[in-house]
Amino acid sequence: MTEQFTQAEDIRCEVKSIVEDVERTGVTFEDGTTGRVGFMSSLDGLNLKTRNGLYSGQIGIALYFAAMYQYFEDEIYREKAEQAVDFIFDRDEEELVDTAYIGAGAGVGSLVYGLDLLSELTDNQRYRNRAADLVSELSKEIIEDDDQYDMLLGAAGTVTGLLRHWEHSDNSEALDKAILCGEHLLDSRYDKWADYKLWDTSRKEGTLSTSTGMGHGVAGISYSLYRLYQHTQRDAFRVAARNALEFENLFYSKHQHNWKSNFVGIKHYSHWWCNGLAGIGHARLGSLQYRTSETLERDMNRVRNGLEPQLLAEDSVCHGTFAQINLLIDLGRMYDEQYLEAAWELASDAIERRRRAGSYRVDPGHIDGIDNPVFFLGTTGVGYTLLRLLAPAEIPSVLRFE
What is the reported pTM? Predict the structure, then answer.
């Protein structure tokens, strides 16, 4: 008990330290706007200005501040969360919704999800009301223009954001538009090997190809469709989810105790969230909330057997150590407390490594004295996970889009 109390005190100090680090990224840019320095790789190199969405934007950072408020009940953190998302209230709904992507990582899906969770964590209805504004602005035309389909960028992620809002507000328009997204997913499939109807997630490689995994693959899409089935009881959504699941399980290796990643440039067995066992574990665990089946139960046993908690090369929640810690927390809540104990141990190892090195191993690294503050690639996702370790029942899982 004394050891765990000491660990908890360490983590409380650590999450406050992360807030201080994030605050140092606030700047005024050359165009006169204020924001945060963040890093996101693109074709043009490093994007040094944080974006809007959950994956690498301001709303992800706001969720960390909101979780700090939820845990510490210190008004300063609620104020920081509010400041981080001022832009959502300053800009027109059309500008916020009509973007290149509509998923849960970038685009309207991420804004609706993030605003609704902000409302819960800060007990402020203003955020949920703004989410409703964005739901109203989302049109059938924008949905049908989606050609990404996946959780992070496409309609599967939009479904997730809309249903999160529906589950907590009873805003029927959100459910109606989630159904439109589901229908778009059903209509956008291609025939694969005669037995499968799937989505092209190849990022325009020139050939039709479907990825495994949570972020850009069928694990995330099937999870969204199971969630939509639960709310609609439309069998077509359940059948499509099951078909996607069966396809993904072709890539499971009994020898590796893992699913092979086949996303662009990633052709190995990983323990990441975006592509790999940690993400598939989150997706299957989430699916089981909405649909019970022998296949889902078997896959969760596979996840538990394949999980090897250890420090990875990076720390981020997308493709690092803290993806595993998030999964261990949820397994501890739903299966056995031994997983929570493993989460505490792994978090302690990660913090100790950070203290030795002076910074977390986040993507794309420690640049000009700054750690990337964004949620999925940077330090706020790390901090949010540590807060979940302190209060697993009170702070929802963003990696499962609770």
Answer: 0.93
